[in-house]
Design brief:
Helix 6 (139-147) crosses helix 8 (198-220). 38% of the residues lie in helices and 17% in strands. It has 245 residues and is an alpha/beta fold. The protein is globular and about 45 Å long.
Length: 245
Amino acid sequence: MGRRRLGFWQWFAVVLVKPVMTVWTRRTWRGMEHLDQDGPVIIVPNHISHADPLVSAHFVYDAGRWPQFLGKASVFKVPVIGWILHRCKQIPVERGSVDAVKSLDALVKALDAGGAVIIYPEGTTSREPDLWPMKGKTGAARLALATGAPVVPLAMWGPERIFDPRRARINLRPRIPVTVVAGPPIDLSRWAGAAPSRQVLEEMTDVIMLRLRDMLADIRGGTPPPLWQRTTRPQPDRQRPEAAA
């Protein structure tokens, strides 16, 4: 959905939020050309702070698209707030429930309508001490496989200065530097038409997370850690025949 088709409550959200973010942040935006003005797109950011949604929404809006986030279904049931979220085209997600399939249907419907859907593949803020990306969950891969929509990576650094999840501290000073870079769509064509098996979804997710990790390394500098540590089971001691004799 492009900005030209926004409704009243979407414009209200823009008027409420964008001036605050304009004062609160000093922005470096790159790669907006990878977010087409029309057509479905799945946007996958790294997750470093509770301020991420504000920053990524600002970037996506400035790129000419309306950001559609996933939110807990319970929030949509809160009077007034839930009503506004629905009017702003946000998407309720059922978690830990047999109704979770309805969430996928809602996401597919949003993409069929040409939406720009934002999914954090890590599912939560990074637990890495230095906020590098973690191993991701498979929701974004499952959605990409179901719809064929392009998956655009969004690497961010700076929102952790607004709200640091490691110390649970918010910083209210103005013009905090934030950098957001969108990359070209991730090539997932090798899995086109594949059944959504666990192996397929995990392979696709690893490709997504590795792209995000490498993009973040370009922004931050330094050498990122692996997305996960493979555990090895200790081998039992085996006595050689001559030792056992």
